[in-house]
Amino acid sequence: MLFALIVLSLFGIIKYINYLTNVRCKSLKNLAGKTILITGGNSGLGLELAKNVATRGGTIIIADKNDATETVNELIKESNNINIFYEFVDFASFKSVRAFAQEFKTKYRKLDILVNNAGVGSGLGKTEDDLETTMQINYFSHFLLTHLLLDILIKAPHSRIVFSSSAAAYVTNLNKDNLKCCSNQNMFLRKIFSYSNSKVALALMSKSLAEKLKGTQVTCYAHHPGLVKTNIFKSTPIKGIWFLPVLILWTCAWLWGKDTDSGIQTMLHLITADKVEKKTGKFFMECIPVWQPPVVHNNKLREDIWNLSEEYVKLKSNERIDTILKIT
Ligand SMILES: *[C@@H]1O[C@H](CO)[C@@H](O)[C@H](O)[C@H]1NC(C)=O
Known about the structure:
This protein is α/β, with parallel strands linked by helices. The protein has a single domain (30-228, 260-327), classed as NAD(P)-binding Rossmann-like Domain (Rossmann fold, 3-Layer(aba) Sandwich). The protein is built from 11 helices and 8 strands. It has helices at 2-20, 44-54, 69-79, 94-108, 133-155, 187-212, 243-256, 260-263, 265-272, 299-312, 321-327, and strands at residues 35-39, 59-64, 84-88, 113-116, 160-164, 219-224, 283-285, 288-290. An 8-stranded mixed sheet has the order 3-2-1-4-5-6-7-8, with helices on both faces. The chain starts with a helix and ends with a helix. The mean pLDDT is 90.
């Protein structure tokens, strides 16, 4: 009897949390005339976002490592929007990111909305650029890409940059010594924090970028989409230290997880809502700005991470933000 009661109330609570955390974007804004780049747009939340945005008009470019030609054809059929394109990019390689940015500017020439969404759940190996895989795919490559596209973003009126961060950004051990892979690292901590550190780095970047872009019309936002049933942790091995955390995460996703349509609502809000521009640099959940992850409040660390990131992605002096702001 008592057991049944506990189970029933548990389901009640779960239902209530589900109800509270399913805020929807109310804007019906049409995006015709806008050029929108979605990284990782061939699966999960990126794909769901592409689907929605396709129906709002606009030119959509899906940048992904996996060939999205079929996805694009389906999107065109479903939405009757013929301006949907696929471009290859491998976010584990700065060479590939640079080639993509160059190609993008030549082909599309303008950019109104950049959605820095591509990401992986785990990956501790080193990339060809001597950085940790998760950190490079989720963060460093987007740091580089954003810089390379900044001039055309600045030229577009009221352009926006959206960073797919995560609530994991609230539990991290990021500092300037472990930003770059593996110098004197405790492997156990590294495994635990590689994902959350990459996600908090995006939140740090968003806040810093908003400050540096004051005086331009570009605004930027980081957000947590909620716990969504996507495949991002599929590649995480369920063994060793991963067993318990992954099991808990999967159970939670199964019980509380949103579908991808609910998962894109905050992103949609950040892309379409008119009033949001005053909230540049803030961290969003369920379409509202919330208290930033603790590390983001540390201004000195934020500046250190920015400067080190410039160094690690090998940014050229004419690609740095102060130079770009001077010449555009
Ligand atoms: C970061 O780089 C800028 C520009 O080079 C410099 O002025 C600033 O002092 C650096 N900040 C830190 C914390 O090293």
